[in-house]
Amino acid sequence: MLFSLTDQELLEQVAHKSEAALTVLHYRYYALLCAAAFKRIQDEAVVEEIVQDVLINFWEKAPTLDRHGNVQAYLFATLRNKVLHEMRARMIMAKHAISLQEEQPGIFTHEAVEMLQAKELEQKLHIIIDDLSPQCKEAFTLSRFERLSYKSIAQRMNISVNTVEKHIGKALNILREKLGEHVV
Q: What's the sign of the alpha-carbon dihedral 2, 76, 56, 134?
């Protein structure tokens, strides 16, 4: 049974693209990673997206990782980097909005600038989502907009949880590619 394997044994299997081994690591670390990220970013949706990104990164890099390395340390180091990136992006956006307001006082409020940026980003996001494959689009929409769990999405779409994770991972990669700095 996979649940009794060590992290290194699971890493070996993930390196050979075992979705079942990745699922075990997901169950083993998902809640811990979310709790750690939530200490810095108190936005549940952003935290879940960052943690999902960490696991996708692990899946993609597993073949090149040291088989004797510490899986938990790798996951938490990746998480720390992604959380810091998100925090930096938020600070840069806030500084940009403040400097814009200073340049033209009275015209833009901090909230108005953030609202315009959010609206523009939302429009781009919906255009990109509309271009996704039908199953990828459905899985991503159910996850991010209807806030369904991967298990619920899998049941609704009649696919495995791993397939849901792959669809959402693919969507996130496409979004990251097309939106660049706006997506962690």
A: positive
